[in-house]
Specification:
The protein is 80% helix and 0% strand. It is an all-alpha fold and 130 residues long. It has 2 domains: 90 residues, no CATH class; 38 residues, no CATH class.
């Protein structure tokens, strides 16, 4: 329960920090809360194993490097690196998430629109499972 709360607050602070034109303090708090919440949810050992697998080292470098750059004080560059690292880290989960969203009544109809459907299919065809 604590981990879900920390992760939720981390996502909230990250989103709010981006809305307020990449506010350094909010983004830094959001990053710390998100990573701490992830560690509370799945445990320290599993978090360490997830981030430091041999085939995910590049993604981990971009994600944690982006967090460090945000903490140093360059939020725009740090968030770009974080988003790229996040995409590389969690791309194995995208097919599952897209399959779930397609079953949600309103969102599923939205994802099946002609222009959006082809884009979602490309994102969802990742065969790198975690």
């Amino acid at each position: 329960e604590i981990g879900m709360g920390l992760t939720g607050f981390g996502v909230f602070f990250l989103f709010f920090g981006m809305i307020l034109f990449f506010d350094k303090a909010l983004l830094a708090i959001g990053n710390v809360l998100f990573v701490a919440g992830l560690a509370f949810v799945i445990g320290l050992e599993r978090t360490f194993r997830f981030f430091f697998q041999k085939h995910k080292m590049k993604a981990t470098g971009f994600f944690l490097g982006g967090v460090l750059i945000v903490l140093i004080g360059w939020p725009l560059i740090g968030m770009i690196l974080e988003i790229y690292g996040f995409f590389l880290l969690f791309r194995g989960f995208f097919p599952v998430v897209i399959g779930f969203i397609r079953r949600v009544p309103v969102l599923g109809s939205l994802l099946n629109l002609p222009g959006i459907s082809s884009l979602v299919d490309k994102v969802g065809e990742s065969n790198n499972m975690v």
